[in-house]
Design goal:
This protein is α+β, with helices and mostly antiparallel strands and about 475 residues long. Helices cover about 35% and strands about 25% of the residues. The protein folds into three domains: about 190 residues, FAD/NAD(P)-binding domain; about 130 residues, D-Amino Acid Oxidase, Chain A, domain 2, CATH 3.30.9.100; about 80 residues, no CATH class. The structure holds flavin-adenine dinucleotide. The site of flavin-adenine dinucleotide has 42 residues, from strand 3, strand 8 and helix 9.
């Protein structure tokens, strides 16, 4: 086995494997180093949208996705407080489908196989434990595997190694604009559910409740609940019963699973934080969750990992064609693009995962968009095809405020207070986009505690770092 490559990628899931595929197809010599052996679970739900499906189609894995039994989901049933709508999921020309849900121990091996097929060398059961440096640049990785320790060398090391990234920690990459979650997430699977004639994605948020459901692979039906933190003590006492209670409170979901059986364990994540991390340095770059993680409420992590590496691959190929300085500059430019491209969606993800009710003025904007036949553009936020600022414009905010105040005169003060709070939050976020608030660098990699789980857990506690 050779030990010298153009690029070494640490991590073989949603960011690492597709990046390896794209690079290997361009003739780049790529090694992927992954500590797990696949198929293996990871603590993540697995809903992704039209843009991700289009990317996977370009990767050439659509037929393999189809073979998992997961349907392309082209309809959605949305509830935001007292506003409900059922409609097609928006698609762009050439899209293969609206949404899909494929469990990660099924999806990730498909991605890793594509990398092997493209010519990347994928080494499983191999853990990166250190970095090599030469002339002030990262020049390779030290890898621990069953045969002992070895060194692999390359011009570039990519940390696609998830939220607890070893590559980030060893390079002292700082996080910024860190935000803690306000709801937990539990999900489970049903056999024999009846989700209706056409596969549909259900997303209902009302009062303190937030519930999602979607058909997934192998004929299973996935249901997710997002309890507020104040509910966790109740979940701890009997998570199965409280999970069932929350699901039953969503009428269409209760109907879909009326004759179904809950199978497997309940998965759960209780604590996480969203962040950006410094994206690159001499000889290294971070991709996927290693560099940026957002609240999973919009179900965007998988699609965002694809989006990141889709832009990173050409930057790497161009950079490798020049000097080390050229390569570093290309990665810095990519990092700036990443921050610009994801900033607004990052804050949106925080909003979607917030506790409490949806601000009345935001429900009103969606209601009006629907009256104007533009509800699809709201859903296109989740396809990462419309920026929140293009949809939630000052004019729409003012119009919605005026309508609400006229309709609910007694609530005038509360409505104006809510709008003022949103405006001030928006101003602060814009400031942070330009002048990030840095957290202290993490000084030690957490190889013993990655996002992996050996088996389904009930419930897993995902600890914040
Ligand atoms: C509770 C929860 C629910 C989520 N739900 C969704 C959802 O429904 N839809 C969605 O799109 N996204 C969801 N996400 C986000 C999604 O899981 C991530 O965005 C996505 O997994 C990012 O992929 P990645 O390849 O960057 O990282 P990961 O999937 O974390 O992969 C990193 C890989 O690196 C490997 N690795 C780590 N350290 C080393 C090392 N030292 N040496 C070798 N290998 C190493 C790990 O073994 C792992 O395989 C959710 C996340 C959470 C926490």
């Amino acid at each position: 086995m050779q030990n010298r490559f153009d690029v070494i990628i640490v991590g073989a899931r949603c960011a690492g494997a597709p990046l390896a595929t794209l690079l290997a197809r361009q003739g780049v010599r790529v090694a992927v180093v992954e500590q797990a052996t696949f198929p293996r679970e990871t603590l993540s739900s697995h809903i992704f949208e039209a843009d991700a499906l289009a990317f996977l189609d370009r990767l050439g894995v659509t037929e393999r996705l189809r073979a998992t039994g997961a349907p392309f989901v082209d309809r959605t049933d949305i509830r935001i407080e007292d506003f409900e709508i059922a409609m097609p999921w928006p698609r762009a020309p050439g899209d293969t489908g609206g949404m899909m849900s494929v469990r990660r121990h099924v999806l990730d091996p498909i991605l890793a196989d594509a990398a092997v097929d493209a010519g990347a060398e994928v080494r499983m059961a191999s853990t990166v434990v250190g970095l090599s440096e030469e002339h002030g640049r990262v020049s390779g990785v030290r890898v621990s595997c069953a045969n002992g320790e070895c060194e692999l060398r390359a011009r570039l090391v990519v940390g696609a190694d998830g939220r607890r990234s070893t590559v980030a920690a060893l390079n002292r990459a700082r996080k910024y604009n860190v935000v803690a979650n306000q709801r937990a997430l539990y999900w489970g699977y049903f056999e024999g559910a009846d989700p209706g004639e056409q596969p549909s994605f259900l997303s209902h948020r009302w009062a303190d409740r937030f519930v999602l459901a979607i058909p997934t692979d192998a004929g299973l039906y996935q249901a997710l609940v997002w309890p507020e933190m104040s509910e966790l003590a109740r979940f701890d006492r009997d998570h199965e019963a409280v999970f069932a209670d929350q699901i039953q409170s969503c009428e269409p979901l209760a109907r879909a699973i009326a004759g179904a059986r809950r199978v497997g364990k309940l998965y759960g994540a209780v604590r996480w934080s969203g962040y950006f991390r410094e994206a690159s340095g001499p000889g290294w770059v971070l991709a996927g969750d290693a560099g940026h993680f957002k609240d999973p409420a919009p179900g965007r992590g998988i699609g965002d990992a694809f989006r990141q590496v889709d832009a990173l691959a050409p930057a790497i190929v161009a950079g490798l064609g020049g000097s080390d300085a050229n390569l570093d500059e290309a990665l810095v430019r990519w990092g700036h693009w990443r921050d610009r491209d994801f900033a607004e969606h990052y804050w949106l993800a925080n909003d979607l995962g917030q506790s409490g009710t949806v601000p009345a003025v935001l429900s009103e904007i969606v209601r009006r968009l629907n009256e104007q036949g533009k509800a699809g553009s709201f859903l296109d936020l989740l396809n990462h095809r419309v920026k929140p600022s293009r949809l939630l414009t000052p004019a729409r905010l003012l119009g919605a405020t005026a309508r609400l105040v006229a309709r609910e005169r007694g609530q005038r003060r509360a409505i104006l207070g809510e709008v003022a709070a949103l405006a001030s939050q928006d101003a602060r976020r814009r400031w942070l986009n330009r002048r990030p608030a840095y957290a202290a660098a993490e000084l030690s990699p957490a190889n013993g505690e990655p996002t992996e789980t050996h088996v389904a857990v009930a419930p897993e506690r995902a600890h914040q770092r």
